[in-house]
Amino acid sequence: MDIMHIPPPKLVELVRGRPHHLVLSHFLSQYRGVFSFYQREIARGAFVTVDYPAFEGDHIDPQAHFRLARDLKASEVVLPDVRFDPTETVLNAKRWIGVAKDTAPSVVAVAQGRNRDEWLQCVRALLEVPIDVIAVVEEVEEFYPRIGRMGAVADLIEMYSSEIAFPKIHFIGGSETPQEIYWIQTRWPGVVRSLDTAKAIVWGLHLRALPKEPFRHAPHYPGRGSGWTEYTEFDETQRVLIEHNIRVMDMWAQGDY
Asked: What is the CATH number of the domain that holds 115?
């Protein structure tokens, strides 16, 4: 599993040199230096996904979303989705799939739903679009109270067993129990392709360290907060903790600790 660590837009250098990135499309136009940073990362061979900001609630016209991804020469683009609305999400996918295919080599669809049945129906409909990657939002863990998104992965594996194509799986957002990536990777190695998360960096900025052992509790997650996009600097202690947290999550993603 590859981890796409998400930095504040004014601190993108925190993730310089990593093989995989995810960036929200509106950040590419709103924050100075973000577009050129990811352009340089692509030029040196990094894989960059341009995400649609449905979760953040920041509206961007789909045409502008795809134009920014196309200008960036993104490796992958996410179709516009509507939070908790499977019907509109599928309609958007059908409406924009042609543009998306012309924009980037790989296309991601984010499945939505208000319960497990709606979510699975949305997945089935998106597979017919067709798309390359199905994205599993963090809220899906609420549909599987005891096992979180491990339950979603089990459902997808069962569903895909009857499908001709087996789309890649991407996790949107890291759980507040980040050890899920270790348990999923050790149980189903390679089934979940990637995960994007800001949590390793947020914990570090708030002076909190992840335990190396995946069976120990993670510190309380303070959330990004309204000032997330305005971070412009960090001290040496924060830097060390951010690097530690990134290293721990990367190890768990490989089934190691």
From this structure: 3.20.20.60
